[in-house]
Amino acid sequence: MSKFGALVMGPAGAGKTTFCNSLIQHLRLNKRSCFYVNLDPAAENFSYEPDLDIKDLISLEDVMEEMGLGPNGGLIYCFDFLLENLDFLTQALEALSEEYLIIIDLPGQIELYTHIPVVPTLVNHLTRFGSLNVSLCAAYLLESTFVIDRSKFFAGTLSAMSAMIMLEIPHVNILSKMDLVKGSVPKRQLKRFLDPDASLMEDNNNPNEDLPGGADPANTESVMGGGSFKKLNRAVARLIDDFSMVSFLQLDVQDEDSVAGVLSHIDDAIQYHEAQEPREPNDEIDHGDDGIMME
To answer: Where are the alpha helices (DSSP H) in 32-146?
Structure first.
């Protein structure tokens, strides 16, 4: 029996948990079943209590106190411990039917799924090598305010592409918190960031870029705004453009249609609706004992 899930990821502050809450609310309003998994061992406050919480297995606070580790080292230790105890996930998920959407909320440390094989190992267990056979889609959130600083936007886009390559599962990239850029970024300009290409950096001209000798390496502001930095950003933009893998959806969690649109793309990526059994028109009509249809 197939299972279906969404792996919610992205840098810290991108709005992952807020998106999970909005997704759960939308699913419940539309009478769809969901199962909420929190895999952030430092998370504490939830609008919807997780159905499965990694803190029931291990918490970051305990690890930092007992092992003398910092936040990042403690987080990696927590995930290593989870990978040694994958029955914690398997036993909770294996009883779920194909009607459920499993929502997995990950922490914001992007090294877990960009260059440390922790989350890729977890994904392999959920999708390929374990008994769960979850049809999984990654939802990568990037804060929409990044579009104001194009170098920051392309750095975030590069991390999204890195996650796509590392995880090797269907991927939906999302510009979150769209309400924060309404009115400050014209809609026509914003559309250019939905399918990013190198021309976005070409438009970002710097008159000092072609000066001989480049920026003064002793001056931090000159380095970050000088020719070398611009050339690096343009090289990153061309790399992303050459791969042509990353495009974005817009998300405003306060807009029900926006949440529904993102969910529709996730459903298509995991082929959720194709696996559901068709219902007869009168399936939900209650018939009385005498066979007369009741309202």
So the answer is: 60-67, 71-84, 87-93, 111-114, 118-124
Helices of type H across 244-291: 256-270
Q: Tell me the C-alpha distance between 145 and 110, whole Å.
A: 18
Provide the pLDDT confidence category of residue 172 given band limits of 50, 70 and 90: very high
> Do residues 2 and 133 make contact, with C-beta atoms less than 8 angstroms apart?
yes
**Which residues contact residue 45 at a Cβ distance below 8 angstroms, ignoring those fewer than 6 apart?**
none
Beta-carbon contacts of 216 under 8 Å, excluding residues fewer than 6 positions away, are 222, 223, 226
**What residue has token string 């909005």?**
22
Which tokens belong to 102?
A: 């499993």
1 or 24, higher pLDDT: 24
pLDDT tens string 218-254:
555 555 556 788 888 899 999 999 988 999 999 999 9
Say if residues 51 and 104 touch (Cβ distance below 8 Å): no
> Largest Cα–Cα distance in the chain?
92
The token pair that represents 283 in the structure block: 């399936």
| Cα distance from N-terminal residue to C-terminal residue, the chain | 35
